[in-house]
From TrEMBL:
NCBIfam families: cinA_nterm, molyb_syn, PncC_domain, PRK00549.1. This is Putative competence-damage inducible protein. Residues 4-171 form the MoaB/Mog domain. Pfam families: CinA (PF02464), CinA_KH (PF18146), MoCF_biosynth (PF00994). Gene3D superfamilies: 3.30.70.2860, CinA-like, MoaB/Mog-like domain. The gene is cinA. Belongs to the CinA family.
């Protein structure tokens, strides 16, 4: 089954809004086993939108449109789709009541144009919007399906996952089941080389690697008559991937993040952790604090950006800073050790580096980062030379710090 995505909104064409919806929808359609050949962004123009929809219908079984369902005059999606499909817009009493309830609970006065959202194409399936006022719409005609979704991601994502995903899954004649193998500590090119034979020889199940910042996610997808059979097909492939990547596999849970996996390890081994950061300015601590229940293992997070702070809070020696500099293996070691003793914890991860765009030298270029982990009276230090802008360097530093923390726990405790 072929699906096509149409993102509606002049703001997308002007670059004022990043089209995260298309990325989300494309990924979910791939999981469903739908073939996606075209994605289109079109502005709020009636004629161009109509032409885009007509073209999409000719070459795809399912057309998903996002955006343009709001109350203003430039929100044209529903009206144009209805016109293209020869349908009349009729008022949906259920949606009208939901809109009324939404504004009443929000204590906001309803303006007349909001009732525009209560009109839907005749014969359409109306999908309730639990996070806004514009309902979703499903239209089925001559073996073709057109789905309309609201533009705001906080409305689109839950609507898609709760209602549209199950609907699309039922359209498939077979069951599609996927399992994600998440790997850290292995580069994208290395990971691809390690599984090249699996990719080259894939039929069903399929194996697809996805590069993330500091990680590689490998999706294994099987098509079968039912989920039980698909799971059986996937199991040996996942087992082989685990054998090849070993301890670098941190999860096979689609929704589990690297920081969640690290927190689980800390909890399992009853360890308390502290972070000591310079160039990342608290980003590592923030990633850890994203995890519910982290208070059981996370003691403190230090941002020691200046040399004075490194000396005062982490007991980094003045002589070390003078001889080796703030960005050095020696300083990273002392930061990690100082963090443990300052908070009486079991583990401390320290980061010091040059995020740029200024501050680099020939000897110590922008992107040079040292990450240290103190555990079990031992300090492990890694040197990295990251590429990219300031934001990218800091983000990569955090992922590598989480990876090092995980590796060190496994090295000492083996689980």
């Amino acid at each position: 089954m072929v699906v096509e995505l149409i993102s509606v909104g002049t703001e997308l064409l002007l670059g004022n809004t990043v089209n995260t919806n298309a990325c989300f929808l494309a990924e979910k359609c791939a999981i469903l086993g739908l073939s996606l050949y075209y994605q289109t962004s079109v502005g709020d123009n009636e004629q161009r939108l109509a032409e885009t929809i007509q073209t999409a219908q000719k070459r795809s079984d399912v057309v998903i449109l996002s955006g343009g369902l709001g109350p203003t005059q430039d929100d044209l999606t529903k009206e144009v789709v209805a016109n293209v499909m020869g349908k009349t817009l009729i008022e949906d009493e259920h949606t009208k009541q939901r809109i009324n309830d939404y504004f009443t609970k929000s204590q906001i006065t309803i303006t007349e144009n909001n009732w525009k959202q209560a009109f839907v194409p005749e014969g359409a399936i109306v999908v309730d919007n639990e996070n806004g006022t514009a309902p979703g719409v499903i239209m089925e005609e001559n073996g073709k399906t057109v789905i309309l979704l609201p533009g705001p991601p906080n409305e689109l994502i839950p609507m898609f996952m709760n209602d549209i995903y199950p609907y699309l899954n039922k359209l498939q004649p077979e069951t599609i089941y996927s399992k994600m193998v998440k790997v850290c500590g292995v580069g994208e090119s290395t990971a691809e080389t390690m599984i090249k034979d699996l990719i080259d020889n894939q039929t069903n199940p399929t194996v697809a690697p996805y590069a993330k910042v500091g990680e590689v996610h490998i999706r294994v997808t099987a098509r079968a008559k039912d989920e039980e059979e698909a799971k059986k097909m996937i199991k040996p492939v996942v087992k082989e991937l685990k054998a090849r990547f070993g301890k670098n596999v941190y999860s096979t849970d689609e929704n589990e993040t690297l920081e969640e996996a690290v927190i689980k390890l800390l909890e399992k081994n009853e360890l308390k952790v502290t972070t000591a950061e310079s160039c990342t300015g608290g980003m590592l601590a923030a990633r850890l604090v994203n995890v519910p229940g982290v208070s059981e293992v996370f003691r403190e997070g230090f941002v020691t950006y200046s040399n004075k702070a490194k000396r005062k809070i982490l007991s980094v020696q003045k002589s070390t800073l003078k001889k080796y500099g703030a960005v050095s293996e020696k300083t990273a070691k002392e930061m990690a050790k100082g963090g443990v003793f300052a908070t009486d914890t079991d583990v401390c991860v320290a980061i010091t580096g040059i995020a740029g765009p200024d501050g680099g030298t020939e000897e110590k270029p922008v992107g040079l980062v040292y990450i240290a982990c103190y555990i079990d009276d031992k300090v492990t230090v890694r040197e990295f030379n990251f590429k990219g802008n300031r934001s990218k360097i800091r983000e990569q530093s955090v992922v590598k710090a989480l990876t090092l923390l995980r590796e060190c726990i496994l090295d000492v405790y083996g689980k």
